[in-house]
């Protein structure tokens, strides 16, 4: 009798324990997992989704509070001058490897190998952090970061990707940078449990996490399910709690489900075009302006997204705060003006190649509609659909129009517009165009001035000049949608590709 | 002996062509640095990537280094993970093989009896139904079949988890997706091979000699259809891997087939080449085994080869 009771009790306990564990385990189906969980090594939406839970920055951008900068691994900071910022580090912060945060970790995070200054280690951080001159240790919990020149967004640089702080001990003890990257040692609310490239990333709650809010789940599994239909089936059947990269065409089906719904919307990223103005046909700015004037962006947004995303007011986003020029109009759609410009430029129907690929949501469909909009203006556009980015961006005679995303890594024109169209960017150095000297001068002032009113004025002038001599076109705000198993979890999305899996962003039902 | 040498030589030549062809075609199809790094990277990162993986060397030199490595069992490193390509492939191989084996058994186990059954009842409703079903199974693309199964068994009925390997039931849909079109091929092939034998005059002789129908089938019909069936089985090995590529992608299985898709997309050369080499070798071995099996199954082939060697 007693034996049976004990047995039943044990069984109940096991069931309860299993039930308890399962209740806060999160299963996420993703289209891909990153090749590396080192912030400096990979810049992709799949990487951002994971690293947000594993690492912290010195300063935190609170996307739920208008992008305000708040203390994180640094408890306070002082902008000493436009080239120097000092951070007081939070004491007793533990890394996932048990080490305690100190100034050495900040030095290691922004060491040459991690900011793209080692010619043998390919990392993706130089465009963001290459302006760092050196990190000075004032005391074990105080660092001073010196930039090479005045930096208008000096604090933003340490509040966003790829400034996530890594462990100096992990870097030092690794045989190679690749080995270090595989360890993924941060101070974030989750630590890496296992990682199988191309298949799975498993995170587990880090009990020693210093801050609030804590991890919401005991364990999070990101499983690769490349097919969207399979991800949707997995959500409907209950195999997954969340699925990523839901297309606008699937929203209706998921929302119609009893236990499933779609969350998400516009993110801090614009889908846009690049014009290779070194090409003979596109060398005339009037033809490029005509291309821009012929695009009915509102129609694009309404037909693809049914109003779930928006057309931005030029190369900017409301998240820019003080730097957002709210009174700027929407990009102009004026077919007559476009036709007149083409006539004035003596456009003779020469073929203009538009190279694209199937990477962003509705990318090919957008290209096809653009082609017909341009045709209405009298432009002869040849659409070439390529397999990968390397083929789209290949530097040859047929590179004329290509498309891409313009993510606002910093809530400032330097993090979006000038990051793409500046004179030191991949595109300028990749010979898409030569940046006009006036524009370069304005860009330099925008990057180094700390006078907000003056920066707003310059930014406005830069956008005006760009409208007349465009090297690209704004299309619409990219949107990111996720499917949620609403009977089990509730997710509060962020306006970007990060995934907040703390108790602020995720709750279990 | 000469025959085996000839076949082995031909197999090696095929492999060599495969290595060269895949190496050069992949090399001109896209720059791995641009595929692995994002559009935001600095030109110095692209240079660092090329230097790290020897992509800054002339193509012929890269090929030479690659082939020299092969002779030492080194298939190169994956650009994506920095791990040996072979290690990555071997990690996914058990998954792929665990799909391929049940598939081939299911395809033969289903297709052969169905084909034989249809041939025995030529012109009947059962025969027509078999043919119609096999045409249908062949005509529906694998990925569509997979999605249809998923819709019925996962979404509608909720019996099976649609993605990955959860338990034994996870095998049902991918194996069915791969095996059904293949079973259709076996069924159609068996049927036509059997019909050909059944109309052969030797069967009249056997019947006239008083042999029972069952004995006729065992002693005369089945051995005669064995040779074409072995041929088709060997050929189907190639299709088997292609089907695994589709099934693994649709059902989210972490096998070598999906690895191939990912590696081609990201221009992870070493991984793609190693997979092509391994599948190529498997195909060649399967065909070699089929050739050897002909001799064992068919005395005429055996005698012919002996005569050729003597001459």
Automatic annotation (TrEMBL), chain A:
Subcellular location field: Periplasm
The Solute-binding protein family domain, residue ranges: 68-424
Keyword annotations: Signal
Signal is among the record's keywords: yes
Signal peptide residue numbers: 1-23
Any one Gene Ontology cellular component term annotated for this protein: outer membrane-bounded periplasmic space
Similarity section: Belongs to the bacterial solute-binding protein 5 family.
Name of the protein described by the UniProt record: Peptide/nickel transport system substrate-binding protein
Organism of origin: Neorhizobium alkalisoli
Automatic annotation (TrEMBL), chain B:
Superkingdom assignment: Bacteria
GO molecular function terms noted in the UniProt entry: dipeptide transmembrane transporter activity
Annotated InterPro entries: BPD_transp_1_N, MetI-like, MetI-like_sf
Main subcellular localisation: membrane
Location relative to the cell: Cell membrane
Domain ABC transmembrane type-1, residue spans: 93-290
Pfam families reported for this sequence: BPD_transp_1, BPD_transp_1_N
Cited SUPFAM superfamilies: MetI-like
Gene3D superfamilies tied to this protein: MetI-like (1.10.3720.10)
CDD domains the record matches: TM_PBP2
Protein's membrane topology: Multi-pass membrane protein
GO cellular component: plasma membrane
Record carries keyword tRNA-binding: no
Family according to the record: Belongs to the binding-protein-dependent transport system permease family.
Database matches in PANTHER family: DIPEPTIDE TRANSPORT SYSTEM PERMEASE PROTEIN DPPB-RELATED (PTHR43163)
Protein name per Swiss-Prot or TrEMBL: Peptide/nickel transport system permease protein
Native organism: Neorhizobium alkalisoli
Source species taxonomy: Bacteria, Pseudomonadati, Pseudomonadota, Alphaproteobacteria, Hyphomicrobiales
